[in-house]
Amino acid sequence: MRPVPTCILSSSEAPQAVHGHAVDAYVQIGSLSKTLTGTALAQLAAMGVLQLDAPLEQFLPVPRGTGITLRHLAQHTSGLPRLPPHVKRRDPYSAFDDAALHAVLQGLDALTTAAPGHTEEYSNLGYAVLGAALTSAAGMSYQDLLDHYVLAPLGITEVTSTPPPDRRLYSRGLFGRPRRPWTMTGAILPAGGLWATPRAAADLVAALLVDRKLGEPAMSWQRAGTVLWHNGATGDASVFAGAVPDGRWVLVHRLTRQADRTDELGIELLQQATPGPHRRPSPS
């Protein structure tokens, strides 16, 4: 079996990058993007730009009376399904552009499967809608929103929707050819389309979950007891990030769609970690 390119950063060990991975190459981080969207929401609320319980129709052209709020979207309790309509198998979100999102918004009441606020169902569609609402409220693009409210305050630059082509790291096929990544630059971007270097992703974990430089962690982080965590997966990449209150944290990225094993490895390493300073690798 071919070795899986793997990158590991944690509170207690020096960064590791094996089998062709690299701490300073851009990789897809999938649904870990949601934690940045949620952090942007929290920052906008803290600055009075919007209210967490504001109805969705205040920001987007959706049918009145859905009862869906920004908080519902962030907490996966909006009643929206996991995926947008008409996703494809090979490149699921390639057709989910702004026009497709607009059509979804106009018929949003017909897509809900439960009343908002009652049932938790993890929803990529919900975060796509949330991202659209935030850009409407802030009057700027999603990337500008992240740069202004999240990344610049933390001094982090290597997180983007459009990384330099010569710094992107791809999974490779049977004969060593780079695999084509999923198209995530359309409306799905706030739910899972960001690229980051593992170095920058680790900086985010330490800054948001340990040092708490932007306040309490956003509601987009998943919670299991005292552990705050999130994972992410695209066609050929998977990531796990987590931290506990005593200062232990870990970031694992693997160039494989075997997300379950990435999660297992991340949990194992988090349990084995010890609290310590954020070991940030020097830029190459």
Structure description:
By secondary structure, this protein is of the alpha+beta class. Helix content is about 30%, strand content about 15%. Strands 2-1-9-8-7-6 form a six-stranded antiparallel β-sheet, with helices on both faces. A three-stranded antiparallel β-sheet has the order 3-5-4. Strand 6 and strand 7 form a beta hairpin.
Write the layout of secondary structure elements.
Layout: E1 6-10, E2 16-18, E3 27-28, H1 33-46, H2 70-74, H3 98-106, H4 108-111, H5 124-138, H6 142-154, E4 159-160, H7 189-192, E5 195-196, H8 198-210, E6 222-224, E7 227-233, E8 238-243, E9 249-254, H9 259-272
Antiparallel strand pairs: 1-2, 1-9, 3-5, 4-5, 6-7, 7-8, 8-9
Helix pairs in contact: 1-5, 1-6
Mean pLDDT comes to: 94
Helix content: 25-40%
Shape: globular
Number of helices: 9
Global structural class: alpha+beta
N-end to C-end Cα span: 30 Å
Note the main sheet: 6 strands, antiparallel
Helix and strand run: EEEHHHHHHEHEHEEEEH
Instruction: Give the assembly state of these chains.
Output: single chain
Quick structural gist:
This protein is 32% helix and 13% strand.
